[in-house]
User: Which sequence fits this backbone?
């Protein structure tokens, strides 16, 4: 199951150990690690990204980084705005919504991530929680998880439903309206029609993005499986099959 995890630590050394634990679990096939960052909460509330150990690179998954977005959220408004281009904050919110990340999750993590704390933020797939929990308990961290498939994916843009509902109501009203009202109703219908067209294009772009993310994740897992043998390869192949089923289910939502 695909999950976003945030592991909060009291010390940077422990955060680095947590980062390495994720890498080891990935090598052993216990989890699949798509991306991870270490972040520190400064005394002024801002968040500083710590260069990861050994300059580890992760495969690019899709067009955006959920991990990077969450790191920005940890800094609150300061973190969101730091270095952001116009409209980036809105983009962050949309990214969280698409991934099923709720205000509750963000609040829980933000409360735990007090100044002086460190966090490992990671995008993973795991079959069981015990392997990661056991490792992190020994290091001394607190794990926050959000299964990205727990929250129903927004397959249809909410604006699409809203515009269609209002257009349907206006059409009923138009059938009973006086002649002097028809022009105003028609103008409003035309305006809503254009908004609906834009929302449908947006919806289509969201679907294409999810398809791109699906293909990139599965491709990354297959590459690892091809280089593995025995039980590790079996776990990776099972995870690939599970991801394919999850994406197919979300596509039908």
Assistant:
């Amino acid at each position: 199951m695909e999950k976003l995890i945030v592991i909060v630590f009291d010390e940077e050394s422990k955060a680095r150990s947590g980062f390495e634990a994720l890498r080891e679990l990935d090598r052993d096939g216990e989890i699949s690690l798509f991306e991870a960052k270490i972040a520190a909460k400064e005394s002024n509330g801002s968040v500083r990204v710590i260069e990861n150990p050994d300059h580890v690179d992760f495969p690019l998954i899709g067009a955006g980084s959920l991990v990077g977005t969450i790191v920005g959220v940890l800094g609150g408004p300061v973190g969101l705005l730091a270095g952001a281009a116009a409209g980036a904050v809105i983009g962050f919110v949309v990214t969280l919504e698409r991934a099923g990340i709720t205000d509750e999750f963000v609040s829980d993590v933000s409360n735990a991530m007090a100044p002086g704390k460190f966090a490992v933020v990671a995008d993973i797939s795991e079959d069981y929680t015990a392997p990661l929990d056991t490792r992190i308990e020994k290091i001394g961290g607190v794990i926050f998880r959000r299964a990205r498939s727990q929250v129903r994916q927004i397959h249809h843009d909410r604006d699409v439903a809203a515009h269609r509902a209002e257009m349907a109501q206006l059409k009923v009203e138009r059938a009973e309206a006086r002649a002097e009202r028809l022009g105003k109703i028609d103008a409003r219908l035309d305006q809503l029609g254009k908004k609906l067209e834009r929302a449908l294009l947006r919806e289509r772009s969201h679907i294409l993005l999810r398809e791109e993310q699906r293909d990139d994740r599965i491709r990354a897992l297959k590459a690892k499986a091809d280089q593995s043998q025995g039980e590790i390869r079996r776990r990776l192949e099972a995870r690939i099959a599970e991801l394919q089923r999850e994406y197919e289910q979300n596509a039908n939502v």
